[in-house]
Every structure is written in C-alpha cells, then in structure tokens.
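**User:** You know discrete backbone vocabularies at least as well as I do. Would you mind producing a protein record, from residues through to fold? Write it directly below this note and I will take it from there.

**Assistant:**
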Amino acid sequence: MPQRFERYVVNRELKGVMGSLLLYLVAVSVLLYVVAGLTLLFLQPRLLYRPMREILLSPAHIGLDFEEVSFRSGDGVPLTGWHVPRRDARFTVLFCHGNGGNIMHRLDNLRLFHDLGVSCFIFDYRGYGRSAGVPGEAGTYLDARAAFDWLVHDKHVPAEQIILFGHSLGGSIVAHLAARVRAGALVVEGAFTSYPDIGARFYPYMPVRRFAFFQYNTQAYIREVHCPVMVMHSKADELVPFEFGIRLFEAANEPKQFAEIFGSHNDSFLVASDVYREAWHKWLDFVSRVGGRGAGRGAPEPQASAVDS
C-alpha cells in the first residue's frame, strides 16, 4: 500500500512538472511569435525600401551620353535622375527601378535600352541616391508623376511616345502612374500583385494583410490602365512568384502581351538577353503600329487584339 501511494505521488508530481513545462513552452512560443510579429510590423519600411545614397558611376562609364537632371516632386522634394538620349529614338522609356540601390545599379539596363533604339529617363525616388527626403508609398507615386511631367513639359516629349517601365516595386509605382496619365504604353517586369500579397507569401505564418503599412496594389492599378500593356515575368523568379505575373496579365485591359523571360528576379535581361531583347523588339514594333492610342484614367478601352508573346 505505501509503495502504491508513493508511485501515485511520484506520477502526480511528474504530471504536474510536465504540465508546467508544457505551459512554459507554449508561453515562450507565444512570446517569440509576438516579438517576431512586432519586429516585422515596425521594420516594414526598412524591409521594403533599401536605398543606397552613394553614386560612384554614371552612364559615361559605359560610353553613353547623358544629362544629369534635377527636378522636384509634387510636394516639393528635390529629385535627381539621368536622361540618356538616343538619336532618332521612336520612344522614351521612363524607368522606375526596384526597391534596392539607386540609378547607378541600372547601368546595364540603360545600355540595353540604348541598344534597342530608345531614349531613357531613369530617376531616384526620394531617399534614394541624391534625391532628398524619405521613401514612402505616397511619395513614390508623386516622384514618378514628377518624372513623367518633366519629360512632357521640360523635355517636350509627346506623351504618346513615352513607355512607362517598372521593375519589381517600380512595376507597382509605374502602374499607378499609367492609370492617371496619357502614355504610349506600360511595361511591368517581375512585379507583385500587391504588397500584402507578397508579404503573405514571405511570411505565411503572420497576419501580414491585417497589419500591412503599405498597399502598392499593382493588380488594382493595372485594371485602370487603358494603354497597351506588356507583363514580363520569369518562372525562375525567386522573389516574386510567376503566378503574380499571370494575375497581372489577366487583370490588364486589351491590348496586352505576356512575355515569359528567363533568369532570376534581377538578372533576366542579362542571362537570357536574346529572349529579353526579342520581347522588347516585338513590343516596340507593336506599340508603333498601335500609334499612341493609349490613354489615361477614364479613357475608353482600345479594341486592338492581344499580341502573342
């Protein structure tokens, strides 16, 4: 009898210890989850915007003539960019770059556009490169609009000869712009459908959608665009899933084209340059045939058919 009682007491104490240990582990897990969530919550701007201030190179280092441009955003923030002209260019590409670095890191892109026979205007958002200010969603939209206005009003480039191009985050920014101005065409490459969508993809265990500071709703913006649209995306994109590109293409109005490219998120135009250049050549020829029938927000949809990629 005493032995049974002793075993009962030991088992009861053991269960109590295991229960306490389990509660402790649950509490620690919950605490770690909350800490991780709060860290992600307040680090969102740093995770999204990764600017670099220092600019050590320019288009001159790759043999391109260029004009260093200073202009102001709609709220007065001083911005800088490079205008790289091409003689007898059919179009001028307004280039909205991604979330990292600055315009210096896009020299290879500028060389490609020059070889394609188009002029290019690339600029830094506020907080990037030599542009003043601090990055923010509303600010990036204002900056892109100011760059477009500089091309139209200061450089006297006809709006129908401007191709709006954005890579990654720049794809969302330029889609927002394309829904609000007259332009010849829109091209988005490696773009996500929205900031909450890409956040949920990276952190599926966190309530990202509920606590997202930003929207960058590319899919909603592209539905409002009524100029020709090309979506470019690689199946090997390790940052923005290929399906996001498909969804953007499906949301776009006619006329539109989907170009499947190859390579990772940032190097498709280099590792598969032939495919990339061919997609652009076909697109430029198509936009030339369309003849600037694109229009901004609220304009009627053009009736041209989609172009096969």
Notes: The chain has two domains: 1-42, 53-290. The chain has a mean pLDDT of 86. The chain has eleven helices and ten strands.
